[in-house]
Every structure is written in structure tokens, then in C-alpha cells.
Amino acid sequence: MRDDAMAGDSKGSKGMSREEVLALPVAVDLDTSNRALGLGRSKGYELAKRGTYPCKVLRLGNAYRVVTADLWELLSLAA
């Protein structure tokens, strides 16, 4: 993960602030998770397809969902 992905406000930044990540629902789409981790869209989908995404990914039909609790744990934000 890039160091600046969680820094400061999200204006002009592709990452998410700590507050934005903590406000996420129980599961999020892959694009939201990619943004929180500082991953590009193509790389995130490639990792999910190969089963090597850095946290748990659920495949629901054509959609990928990431469990937010796993995302928080990966980012050291777990309660």
C-alpha cells in the first residue's frame, strides 16, 4: 500500500482518508477497496481474479465484494 493512500483529505488524492475507510459498509465493491489500498483498477481485478487479493474477496455472480472488516484489519484499523 502506498503511504499517502490514507493521508489527509481525499481531494486530489486517489486514496481514502481514515474516516472514509471507517465509515464503509459491511462489504464494499472492489473499486472502493482498491481505492482504500491505493491499487489501480486493473491490478485490483487481476489480483482478485487470480485469488491473490490482499484481503478476503467474495464473488457474487459477476461482481466482487470485499469484506470491510478484513480491509480494516489489513490497514491496521480493526476495532
Protein traits:
79 residues, alpha+beta, Arc Repressor Mutant, subunit A, 3-stranded antiparallel beta sheet, 4 helices, 3 strands
Structure, described:
Helices cover 38% and strands 15% of the residues. The model is unreliable at 1-12 (pLDDT under 50). The relative contact order is 0.19. The protein is α+β, with helices and mostly antiparallel strands and 79 residues long. The protein is built from 4 helices and 3 strands; from the N terminus they run αβααββα. A hairpin with a 2-residue loop joins β2 (57-60) and β3. The chain has a 3-stranded antiparallel beta sheet. α2 (30-37) packs across α3 (41-50). It has one domain: Orthogonal Bundle (Arc Repressor Mutant, subunit A).
Describe the protein's topology:
Blueprint lengths: L17 H5 L4 E3 H8 L3 H10 L6 E4 L2 E5 H7 L5
Antiparallel strand pairs: 1-3, 2-3
Short structural description:
This protein is an alpha+beta fold. It has helices at residues 18-22, 30-37, 41-50, 68-74; strands spanning 27-29, 57-60, 63-67.
Strand content: 15-25%
CATH topology: Arc Repressor Mutant, subunit A
Biggest sheet: strand arrangement: 1-3-2
Runs with pLDDT <50, length 5+?
Answer: 1-12
Distance between the termini: 20 Å
Assign the CATH architecture. Orthogonal Bundle
3D shape:
globular
